[in-house]
Amino acid sequence: MVRKKNPQQTRELILNVAAKLLHRHGYKGLRVDEVVEKTGLTKGALYHHFPNKKELAYAVVDELFYKTFLGHWQELLKSSGDPINVIAESFEFSRKHLSQDELEIGCPLTNLGQEMSHEDEGFRTRINNVFEDWTKLIADLLSKGIQQGNVTPDINPTLTARFLVSSYQGIQCNSKFSKDLNRYHDNVGYLQSIIKNLATRAIA
User: Fold this and answer.
1) What is the pLDDT of residues 43-79, one digit of tens each?
2) Angstrom distances, CA of residue 17 to CA of 7, 38, 77, 100, 146
3) Are 26 and 119 in contact, with CB atoms under 8 Å apart?
4) What is the rounded CA–CA span in Å between residue 106 and residue 175?
């Protein structure tokens, strides 16, 4: 039973349930009572780990969304392969594996940022930090590529990385509104072609 779990297991259970609800319903639609129901815990047990709804949502962003989101990119972007290919391929997993339901729900971080950034500085800074760290990973790879002679030297790595991250966010939002998975695939493919044209010799 849930009551026999150790404190860390209980905390992880709460976070995982809250993350799914936060993704689907947003912060304003997140109900503590539903978290309690789906975890099988008492409300007192939940509040023992998280004093209020906001702290619970902050922890979901810090401990789950951040780790999951950046973990995928970190694994791909630390590759020793050609930087341009690595960056282009880093978008391929979502292109191949995104389901229709996931497309329509949208990116949890982008959704939460759109919902709460203008209302709560804690959410804004947390979500912005994720995208800033992702941008830095890409910018570092582009700088590495310039040093190796694989990336055209007339680009600004930071500005280019910001453009790529912003473009992908835009693709996600557009696809969520259109509910068109094929359009999503086409747009990500086109973004990958833009990335490959950053090579000193365009990659076919």
Assistant:
1) 999 999 999 999 999 999 999 988 887 887 777 777 7
2) 16, 7, 29, 21, 43
3) no
4) 8
3-state secondary structure 145-176: HHHHCCECCCCCHHHHHHHHHHHHHHHHHHHH
The pair of three-digit structure tokens given for residue 137, joined into one six-digit string: 């990973």
Q: Percentage of the chain surpassing pLDDT 70?
A: 95
Q: What is the mean pLDDT of residues 88-98?
A: 83
Beta bridge partners of 151: 199
Cα–Cα dist 184/189, whole Å: 8
The answer to whether residues 176 and 104 touch, using CB atoms and an 8 Å cutoff, is yes
Q: By C-alpha distance, which of 24, 173, 165, 189 is closest to 108?
A: 24
| Token pair for 99 | 């389901």
Residue 44 amino acid letter: G
Give residue for tokens 């939460």. 112
Distance separating alpha carbons of residues 141 and 143, to the nearest angstrom = 5
For the chain, list the domains and their CATH numbers.
1-51 (1.10.10.60), 58-196 (1.10.357.10)
